[in-house]
Write a structure and sequence with these properties.
The chain is an alpha/beta fold. Helices cover 47% and strands 12% of the residues. β6 (184-186), α8 (189-197) and β7 form a beta-alpha-beta unit.
C-alpha cells in the first residue's frame, strides 16, 4: 500500500512519462517551452516559401475559442516548419496577442475586417491577401469566416481549406464555399455526415479533432503563485468547470441584438436547469473531497462563469466540503489554465474545451455535456472517450461522482487510457496535416 507521498510521486512520474512518450516534454516546464523553436528557427527557409493565411481566434471571452489558434499553430510548427504563417485573428485582446507572440515569436499577425461593401479595411490585410498562397480556416464552432472565404476566392482565385470545424445546417451559400474547398476536416463525425448528406463535393473530407488538442501553452509563474496562496499540492486536486445551458451572449457582446423573445427563452431555460445541472457537479465535488481528502478548484472557461462559481457551485456545498474548495473566480487565458490543469489529478467540466486542454497536458478530462451545447460533443465519442463523457440529462449524480472517483482510485489505468487516446489523436493530426501541407505546397511557389 503506497503512502500519500509515494502515491503523489507515482502519479507525477506517470504524468511525466505520459507527456514524454508523446513528445510533449515541453509542456512540463515553462523553461523548456520557451526554448522550443518557432517556425523560421527550425531550419533556414528557402528564398521563397509557401505563405499561409490562417483565419482563427474568433473571440477572447472563451479560453476554448482562444485555444484554437495556438493549437493549429503548434501543428503547423510541427508539420510545416518552413511555411510563412500569417495569422488573421478576429480578436486578440485580453492579453491574447502577447501570449501568442511569446510562444510563437516569429508569428506575423495582421488585423482588419472585411466590410459590408466587400472591401478590406486595412492595407496590411490587403497585402496579406496578395502575399498568401493559401487560406486556412482554423477550428471553430462553424465555418465562421464564410464571407471571408468567398471574398478570398473571388478576389484572389487562390485555394483554401477548412480544418477542425463543426458544420450544422448547410444552405446554398455555404454549400458552394464548402464544395470549392481543397479539403474539409470536421472536428467530429456528425458534421462529416452532414457534408455527405448535403452532397458537398470538395475533393477531400475527413475527421480531425479540434486543433486545441495540440495546445502546449503554460504559465507556471501565475499558477505557482495561485497554488501557493491556496495550498494546492501538485497532482492532488480536482478542477471543476460550471456552465449554464445557454451562453448569455446578450450580456457579453454589446453588438449582439437578440430579440426580447430570445432573451426571455435563454434566461428562462438557464434558470430552469441551473440548479438541476450544478447539483450534479456539486455531487462529484463532494464525493471527491470526502473520498480523496483532496481539494477542488472551481474554474471558468468563459468570462460570465466567474459570476456563477460561488452561487451555483461553492455556496450550496456542505461546510466540511466547502472549506476544501477553492474558487478561481478571475477570468484567465489558456496558458494559465494549461498549467493548472496539467498539475491537477483530473478536470471535470460542463464546458467542452477545458477537458481538451487538460488531455493535451496529460490530465484526464471528463466532459458533462448539456443538450444545448451543439453537436461538437460528438468528438468525445469519436476520439474514444465515451467513458469520460456524460449526457447530463441521461445520468444521475451518482453516476458522474463514481466515474470521477474511479479516476482517483485507478489513476495509472486512467493515464494509460489517455495516453492511448492522445497517441491516436496525434496520429490523425499527422495524417491530416500532411493533406494540409500538400495543398499549400501545391498552391505555393515551385
Amino acid at each position: 500500500m503506497l503512502n500519500p507521498q509515494q502515491d503523489f510521486s507515482r502519479r507525477t512520474w506517470l504524468k511525466q512519462s505520459f507527456c514524454q512518450s508523446l513528445g510533449m516534454a515541453g509542456v512540463l516546464s515553462s523553461n523548456l517551452l520557451s526554448q522550443q523553436p518557432a517556425f523560421s528557427q527550425l531550419q533556414a527557409k528557402p528564398e521563397r516559401v509557401p505563405t499561409l493565411l490562417l483565419r482563427s481566434g474568433w473571440q477572447t471571452v472563451n479560453i476554448g475559442d482562444i485555444g484554437h489558434s495556438p493549437g493549429i499553430l503548434k501543428l503547423l510548427e510541427l508539420y510545416a516548419p518552413h511555411f510563412q504563417i500569417i495569422l488573421w485573428p478576429n480578436s486578440v485582446d485580453r492579453g491574447v496577442e502577447p501570449m501568442l507572440k511569446k510562444r510563437f515569436p516569429d508569428l506575423k499577425i495582421v488585423k482588419g475586417r472585411l466590410l459590408k461593401n466587400g472591401k478590406l479595411d486595412s492595407e496590411s490585410l490587403e497585402q496579406a491577401f496578395r502575399q498568401a498562397d493559401f487560406f486556412l480556416h482554423g477550428s471553430g464552432p462553424s465555418v465562421v469566416s464564410r464571407r471571408e472565404l468567398a471574398h478570398w476566392k473571388k478576389t484572389t482565385g487562390k485555394p483554401y481549406g477548412i480544418y477542425g470545424v463543426t458544420v450544422s445546417e448547410i444552405n446554398a451559400e455555404l454549400h458552394k464555399i464548402l464544395s470549392e474547398a481543397d479539403f474539409i476536416f470536421t472536428r467530429e463525425t456528425h458534421s462529416l455526415k452532414n457534408l455527405t448528406d448535403a452532397k458537398v463535393t470538395s475533393d477531400y473530407q475527413d475527421f480531425a479533432p479540434d486543433a486545441t488538442f495540440a495546445i502546449d501553452l503554460t504559465d507556471d509563474l501565475k499558477v505557482r503563485s495561485f497554488q501557493k496562496q491556496n495550498q494546492l499540492e501538485q497532482g492532488k486536486y480536482l478542477c471543476a468547470v460550471p456552465r449554464l445551458r445557454f451562453t448569455p451572449y446578450h450580456k457579453i457582446h454589446k453588438s449582439i441584438r437578440w430579440s426580447k423573445e430570445k432573451i426571455h427563452q435563454v434566461e428562462s431555460i438557464n434558470r430552469e436547469f441551473q440548479e438541476i445541472d450544478h447539483a450534479k457537479l456539486r455531487a462529484a465535488i463532494i464525493k471527491w473531497v470526502r473520498t480523496s481528502g483532496q481539494k477542488v478548484v472551481v474554474c471558468p472557461e468563459m468570462t460570465y462563469q466567474t459570476e456563477i462559481i460561488h452561487p451555483l457551485v461553492i455556496d450550496p456545498l456542505p461546510p466540511d466540503v466547502k472549506k476544501m474548495v477553492v474558487p478561481h473566480d478571475q477570468y484567465w487565458l489558456p496558458d494559465e489554465a494549461g498549467s493548472l490543469y496539467r498539475d491537477a489529478s483530473a478536470v471535470l467540466s460542463m464546458e467542452c474545451h477545458s477537458p481538451i486542454i487538460a488531455c493535451a497536458h496529460g490530465t484526464p478530462g471528463l466532459y458533462v455535456r448539456q443538450p444545448t451545447d451543439t453537436i461538437k460533443g460528438q468528438m468525445w465519442y469519436d476520439i474514444g472517450l465515451k467513458d469520460w463523457t456524460f449526457e447530463i440529462d441521461e445520468v444521475n449524480q451518482k453516476q458522474i461522482s463514481e466515474r470521477v472517483i474511479d479516476i482517483y482510485h485507478h489513476y495509472e489505468q486512467s493515464i494509460d487510457k489517455l495516453k492511448s487516446v492522445m497517441q491516436s489523436i496525434q496520429k490523425r493530426q499527422k495524417q491530416t496535416m500532411q493533406i494540409v501541407t500538400a495543398a499549400v505546397r501545391k498552391s505555393g511557389p515551385s
